[in-house]
Amino acid sequence: MSRIQRNFVAGAWWEGAGVMENRNPSDLDDLIGLYAIASPEDVADACAAAAEAQRAWAVAGPQVRADLLHRIARGIAKRETEVATMLAREEGKILAEAIAETRRAAQVFRFYAGEALRVAGDAIASVRQGIDIEVVREPLGVVGLITPWNFPIAIPAWKVAPALAYGNSVVLKPAELTPGTARLLARIIADAGCPVGVFNLVMGPGTSVGAALVDDPHVKALSFTGSVPTGRRIAQSAAAGMKRVQLEMGGKNPMVIMEDADLEVAVSASLNGSFFSTGQRCTASSRLIVHASIHDAFVDELSRQVAALKVGHALAPDSQIGPVVSAEQLASNLAYVDLAAAEGCEVRGGERLALSTQGFFQRPALFLGARSEMRVCQEEIFGPCASVIKVSDFDEALHVANDTAFGLSAGICTRSLRYAREFRRRVQSGMVMVNVPTAGVDYHVPFGGSKGSSFGPREQGRAAAEFYTSSKTSYVFAG
Ligand code: ADP
């Protein structure tokens, strides 16, 4: 029996009220570990400890905060192989992607170490004589962070780092499918000398541990990334508790291929955007909207490259696409493959693969001849499946691109300045990509969507200050 990996509460490692198994989706015989499930009391204790610790952290000053964030970044870099291997083992993305994600997490901590030194305010003259006005940013207090399994270190990093940089304390609830990476991050944060209670980790199911965090009276703000139904539930609970809330949810991201696109660029951007990380990215291109005059050449070349993708164990050096994360997700993906055929698409790929280890392997799928109103073009699948919709001109392409409840990332491949300009202006999404994949973003600029994809202020870059701080306006009359 392996040792139980524990929660981190008030600066100590806590047992919890139960245990959950963490298994490798590339190889179900590989039991990664047993992880403690926090009890509702553990969550309450974590939030109380965070509230207590935040009072000193709020006034610790920018140098102390910057130094801690730098030490965390160094800790991640030092343990890069260990973190990335854990990430690939429990989430299933290939090791190269897991290493890139781990590096990204360190970069995010470094970025916010700098931001901790640049928390600026405004000094403005009053409209009244003799009065000076100062507007400053203050921390909120305890923030609850609830994260999904698909970026098990990058998403916790881009929530934890700004929360700490701006003087908040944190209770992190990672996804139940990927507790291992979050526990390693907690270990790194503890080893970096984080003051007791400033960072806490509570693991376990969303419905018990997550819900307890959402409802805890010490928590002043909630940042969530995950599915739409959970986001909606959290927003309702947050409203009842008058908590600030930030939600990043689904996508049904379009990639438009115009008739003048560079075919190589278009195929490469679509292959990457639709299938890398097994299509398990909220910014994945799940709708390829292709001009009729380039459609057949694009589909032929993309199909050839998709069929050649090597699906395999996340840790095997020649794998290009790892497994689907879980049995439930695989069953859902396979049901969408059947649905695509039932809705009238020509399906290429998409079948479950039996490999030498028992895992959730699936061949990437293209749904050809799709139409915008089909369910496979409207519902987020969150797997290696992309619909191809043929259109006859730019206006139709734009109309289809916008024909969705979501609005996270939208791409266009074209050599026309006019198409690119029009698309950037008229597409309904928080992020627009011209000749680059819809997935894959920088960390020092805002991230987020429009319509049903996001709610509340943007994440990442300097935009994060909007969520993690509150402004205070003071008026001074010198007499
Ligand atoms: P996914 O489909 O990606 O698993 P979820 O929205 O179910 O998306 O999960 C995202 C995160 O939200 C996870 O950490 C999960 O445990 C948590 N979660 C799920 N349900 C709730 C809930 N009712 N309250 C709070 N957190 C929840």
TrEMBL record:
<dbReference type="InterPro" id="IPR016161">
    <property type="entry name" value="Ald_DH/histidinol_DH"/>
</dbReference>
<feature type="active site">
    <location>
        <position position="248"/>
    </location>
</feature>
<feature type="domain" description="Aldehyde dehydrogenase">
    <location>
        <begin position="19"/>
        <end position="473"/>
    </location>
</feature>
<keyword id="KW-0560">Oxidoreductase</keyword>
<protein>
    <submittedName>
        <fullName>Aldehyde dehydrogenase (NAD+)</fullName>
    </submittedName>
</protein>
<comment type="similarity">
    <text>Belongs to the aldehyde dehydrogenase family.</text>
</comment>
<dbReference type="Pfam" id="PF00171">
    <property type="entry name" value="Aldedh"/>
</dbReference>
<dbReference type="InterPro" id="IPR016162">
    <property type="entry name" value="Ald_DH_N"/>
</dbReference>
<dbReference type="InterPro" id="IPR029510">
    <property type="entry name" value="Ald_DH_CS_GLU"/>
</dbReference>
<dbReference type="InterPro" id="IPR015590">
    <property type="entry name" value="Aldehyde_DH_dom"/>
</dbReference>
<dbReference type="InterPro" id="IPR016163">
    <property type="entry name" value="Ald_DH_C"/>
</dbReference>
<dbReference type="InterPro" id="IPR016160">
    <property type="entry name" value="Ald_DH_CS_CYS"/>
</dbReference>
